[in-house]
Amino acid sequence: MLARIMGTGMAIPKLRVTNDDLAKIMDTSDEWITERTGVKARHLAVEEGTSSLAIEACKKALDNAGMDAHELDLIIAATVTPDHLLPFLSGEVQAGLDAMQAAAFDMVVGCSGYLYAISVANAYVKSGMYRNILIFGAETLSRIMNWEDRSSCILFGDGAGATVIKASEEGVICSVLGTDGKAGPALGCEARPLQNPYVHNEWDYPYVKMAGQEVYKFAVRTVPRSINEVLDKAGISADEIKYFVIHQANLRMIEAIAKRLGQSMDKFPACIQETGNVSAASIPMVLDKINREGKLERGDKLVFAGFGAGLTWGASVLTW
Ligand code: UT7
Questions:
Q1: Where do the domains of the chain lie, and which CATH numbers do they carry?
Q2: CA of 212 to the centre of ligand 1 (A)
Q3: Cα distances (Å, whole numbers) of residue 78 to 87, 145, 211, 217
């Protein structure tokens, strides 16, 4: 049996912040942000938290799948910005959904989190250990951005995207995953410093630090390579793929990836214009957008692919 997506859902905070809004509080412009990234607006959490956004997205995904929370046997969260270190996010969501019979755990793989989570879910389904799995990415990245660093904060937003998976004859065909820990410092964020009776450290930069151009080059090189690798493994050509659902990091980057694959941009749906980069939530968010627009038909072949902190990357090919 394979992991098949039966339903999708997403949630974003109420507060919508346009590029012009940001230009009022920092030295930037709509023109610069649009031209370099394609982002026009992002939604930032004020009243919401990572768990409330996640619960909203998961309820919508369950509803879309026609599945009751009590039927879930596993919940996997992908996040780097939970509301609490403990209890962890998937446990909070399990409680919020009243899915008390489901096991739950979090994965911390940055923007590649959803890709890692779906390949883990597929392995569980193939092994027969779990049948009904909820996977979601949820982030309030605004809490770890330095709002005085205009080269990074303009890119990101908050939100959640969820998918409900069921064991089925068709589903995820295969996946490739990769990590280059040596390149990790290109996109980092310090953890809470060591503090105990024997050592005292100040938390001097508790924000995301990003070497933007390095990450850009890494992504444009690695994502097409991993897509070609997963397609080869599946014995499917790029022309047979209806949609390439790519991590929404930068619209220019997605255009460069489409060009390298020799595929039209029509096959690369996007939501980044309205959401910014929402890390692990971005792939299920775009998927939900095209699902709600009625653009997916059972039997369609899709590719999910992305990259992120670690540095990591991943790609999956699947039957919708
Ligand atoms: O999920 C993975 C997360 N990360 C990524 O995907 C990041 C990938 N990288 C990128 O998307 C791009 O590198 C950025 C959009 C982040 C930045 O674009 P860039 O073309 O690499 O710009 P830059 O940082 O090299 O800066 C170019 C210029 C600089 O000015 P000077 O030194 O040329 O005078 C910056 O100070 O643009 C300036 N600049 C800005 N100007 C207006 C940087 N940020 C801004 C800004 N508004 N927000």
A1: 1-320 (3.40.47.10)
A2: 6
A3: 15, 18, 23, 24
Share of the chain above pLDDT 70, in %: 100
For the segment 46-70, what is each residue's pLDDT rounded down to a tens digit? Answer: 999 999 999 999 999 999 999 999 9
23-47 tens-digit pLDDT = 999 999 999 999 999 999 999 999 9
Ligand 1 centroid to Cα of residue 96, in Å, is: 39
Protein residue closest via CA to atom 18 of ligand 1: 36
What's at 26, amino acid-wise? Answer: M
In the block, tokens 């389904």 appear at: 125
- Cut 0.90: pTM above it: yes
Q: Which residues line ligand 1 (CB under 6 A)?
A: 28, 32-33, 36-37, 111, 150-151, 154-155, 210, 212-213, 215-216, 219, 249-250, 277, 308
Q: What is the DSSP string of 141-156?
A: GGGGS-TT-HHHHTTB
Give the Å distance between the CA of 287 and the centre of ligand 1: 27
* 281/287 Cα distance (integer angstroms): 10
Question: How sure is the predictor about 268, in pLDDT bands with cuts at 50, 70 and 90?
Answer: very high
Interatomic CA distance for residues 239 and 75, integer angstroms: 33
So which residues are the catalytic ones? Answer: 111, 247, 277
Closest ligand 1 atom to Cα of 247: 1
From residue 160, how far is each of 43, 133, 184, 195, 282 by CA, in Å? 11, 17, 24, 32, 8
Q: How far is the CA of 34 from the centre of ligand 1 (A)?
A: 12
Task: Give the separation between CA 60 and CA 56, rounded to whole angstroms.
Answer: 6
